[in-house]
Write a structure and sequence with these properties.
Layout: H1 29-49, E1 59-63, E2 71-73, E3 89-91, E4 97-99, H2 106-118, E5 124-128, H3 131-138, H4 148-151, E6 157-160, H5 170-177, E7 185-188, E8 192-197, H6 200-223, H7 231-241, H8 244-261
Parallel strand pairs: 6-7
Antiparallel strand pairs: 1-2, 1-5, 2-3, 3-4, 5-8, 7-8
Helix pairs in contact: 1-8, 2-5, 3-6, 6-8
């Protein structure tokens, strides 16, 4: 992907050199809130479609666009495959549901609240117990730069090895959050995967990418010894495929799919 000054004019303002539209703008906080809630419900349905559900486990959050000390998240006990905009809840820093009628998952609160409180630049986080991330974590491995997609996480991932049971204490949440920082992904050994982003779209797209790359890595090692990128190659791939702009736009393809296939998630009543 070229980033030189001689590229076509319509690409001049894009970091990736791709014809990516600008982020949407909103006239009011209410309009912006409706947008992020729709995107959150879509993300949860996408998780369901990919089989990321594991009973009550798994949650995605996004910071409220007006009240930055609050975040929207899926409620306790609602399937990824059934959640709608109407089901979503807004939670404050004390774990109180300030918008919505359902209960918050204690694990969702301690993990997501800690991330949102500690990092103002992060606006979303995604967590689930997927088969591929759990397998990779059980081996104590992070993604190796064996292809362009996995290299997106080069020097931007952390293996969290502490385990004290289900994450339901504030201290556990804070300890996990301490490793987000400049990382895009935290692989929780014996647990699952967390991805974060400056937007909901980034966090969710990164989750899909990381889980897919975990699968490829497990397959490659089962078949032989994969060849990894050199450090300069990995960094070059990371600069392109790890770009936030690209992640946001890649989510738009998923949005188009799920709104076509499962439009009922947009129900607000």
């Amino acid at each position: 992907m070229s980033t030189t000054d001689d590229r076509p004019a319509f690409l001049a303002d894009t970091a990736t050199g791709l014809p990516i539209p600008a982020d949407p703008t909103f006239a009011t906080p209410a309009e912006h809130r409706r947008h992020v809630k729709q995107r959150l419900a879509a993300s949860l349905r996408l998780f369901g479609r990919e089989g990321f559900g594991e009973g009550i486990s798994g949650h995605i959050s996004v910071r409220d666009p007006e009240h930055h000390d609050r975040f929207w998240v899926n409620p306790f006990g609602v399937s990824f495959n059934r959640v709608t905009v109407a089901d979503l809840i807004c939670v404050d820093t004390e774990g109180r549901v300030v918008w919505g009628s359902r209960r918050v998952n204690p694990s969702a609160f301690v993990i997501h609240a800690a991330i949102h409180q500690r990092y103002p630049h992060l606006h979303a986080a995604a967590h689930a117990h997927t088969a591929h991330s759990r397998a990779l974590g059980a081996l104590g491995l992070l993604l190796e730069p064996i292809d362009q997609e996995s290299a997106a996480f080069h020097n931007r991932q952390h293996l969290y090895e502490a385990y004290e049971g289900p994450s339901i204490t504030v201290e556990q949440g804070r300890d996990i959050a301490a490793h987000a920082g400049d990382n895009q992904a935290i692989l929780l050994r014996h647990h699952g995967l967390i991805t974060v982003g400056g937007s909901l779209e980034e966090a969710v797209h990164r989750f899909f990418t990381y889980d897919s790359c975990a699968r490829i890595q497990l397959l490659a090692h089962a078949a032989g010894t994969p060849k990894t990128f050199t450090a300069p190659q990995a960094q070059a791939a990371a600069d392109g495929f790890g770009d936030a702009q690209l992640a946001r736009f890649s989510f738009e393809l998923l949005w188009d799919e799920i709104t076509h296939d499962q439009p009922d998630f947009l129900n607000e009543n």
